Amino acid sequence: MANDNNSRSFGEDFKHRVKAVKTTRWIRFAVVAAIFIAWVAWLGSWWVLIFLLLLFDIYITGYIPFTWWKKSDNKVVKSVMSWVDAIVYALILVYFVFTFIGQNYQIPSSSLEKSLLVGDYLWVNKTAYGPRVPMTPIHFPLVQNTLPVINTKSYTEWPKWKYRRLKGLGNVERGDIVVFNFPAGDTVTTKVTNPDYYTLVSMLGRFAVHNNKEQFGDVIYRPVDRRENYVKRAVGLPGERLKIVDDVIYIDGKPMAQPENVQFNYFFQMRDGVMSEHDWDELGISVDDRNIVPVAPGELRNVAMNGFLVNDDGSVPTIYVSPLTPAMIEKLEANPRTTRIMKVPATEQTPLFPEGVSDSWTRADYGELWIPQKGKSIKLDDYTWKIYNRCIRNYEGHDDAYIKDGTVYIDGKPAKTYTFAMDYYFMMGDNRDNSADSRYWGFVPEDHIVGKPWRVLVSFDKDKSLLNGGVRWERVLKPANPDK
Hints:
Layout (H helix, E strand, L loop, with lengths): L1 H6 L2 H11 L2 H21 L8 H10 L13 H26 L1 E5 L13 E6 L20 E2 L4 E2 L23 E5 L5 E3 L7 H8 L1 H5 L2 H4 L2 E3 L7 E8 L4 E5 L2 E4 L2 E2 L8 E7 L6 H7 L7 E3 L6 H6 L13 E6 L1 H9 L3 E6 L22 E5 L6 E3 L2 H14 L5 E4 L2 E4 L2 E3 L1 E3 L4 E5 L9 H4 L2 E2 L3 E11 L25
Antiparallel strand pairs: 1-2, 2-24, 3-4, 5-8, 5-24, 6-7, 8-22, 9-10, 9-16, 10-11, 12-14, 12-15, 13-14, 17-21, 18-19, 19-20, 22-23
Helix pairs in contact: 3-4
Membrane topology: Single-pass type II membrane protein
Main location: membrane
Organism: Heminiphilus faecis
């Protein structure tokens, strides 16, 4: 048979191989080819069709010996390679699904409680806004940026592809909960991730962060799609003017309705000074949010003036502070043991965005800011430079942009205006007083948008054991955004 194959011309051998293929394999190839062609059409890069030849060889002609191990007489080789083959196929499938369809995502913080809870595992739909073509196409599909155990990068920085988004089912709308890459995550310290690098520099100075590797580790850069995933609610859209007055968001001068589960921090006190485990569970307050306010003897006058109970002997029933939704406040007000509920005043320890403009702002009284829109221009001066310089330099790639003597230079040339190349969004958490969001690190560029949470796949309560309420069965397959 080998001699026969060697004696045939390529054309004769090709015809022989094609004729020998069973009908069922032709059907499998036709299905795979149709899916591949549809994907190429969606991708919009028709040169990729050249890989159809590879699929034809895999299913029909078999010139490339991908399955050489199946002909081996060594049982160990066959066993090992069958596992390798299955794993490779699985990883390729996972890569394409996670890149172009959707992926799972875990809620790590309480910034969106009670809409989404710590311990929720979500399915994020990437087709909602259109999946991004990978900017770092060679990466391990099951981790974001760092391989566990060996603690090395899970991606290569070559090749790098420019930002491009495929056609999706729609655009980001106000009120959408959105997963995106953390914009301020372009530069990170390997040992300290919270607070982020830019907050550390603002608090401690660049020299202290870069020259203390023992505490902060190395300072490294991450490409857009390898930055940490965040999830927040889109409250401001491109081209809008946003302002916050007494915790109410105003868009273009009009107040926006609050999400049903919006939370703010409140002081509250029970007459007997006791919150039992049952009381906390009834309100739905997690262990991490069950905080006590220490009261020094010299503060008794202020405590009484704010309406909190002070006993005749000078003792003060415990004053608690927790994030509360309107529904939780109603429950507390209906409890005859409750003596006082008071909103915590907004004071800032972390600088707000943008520095140099927001000095008198708080998270409760913030702005006004115009949100950049693709194709729209701004006048460049000292004020607008403070607000939009990061968009121009870091997000839109004008590394050689700076201001000198009141004149802005972009790519080495003086510029009086700038036209934005991308749309931007203003993102906030529903847990308003405990959310690191756009009020602190600024706008989210469109190339950072990952997708839209669709459903809660499963939810685990870290405060309880698996056999004692640790699985929140009532949240399984629940819509990820109950407000829409």
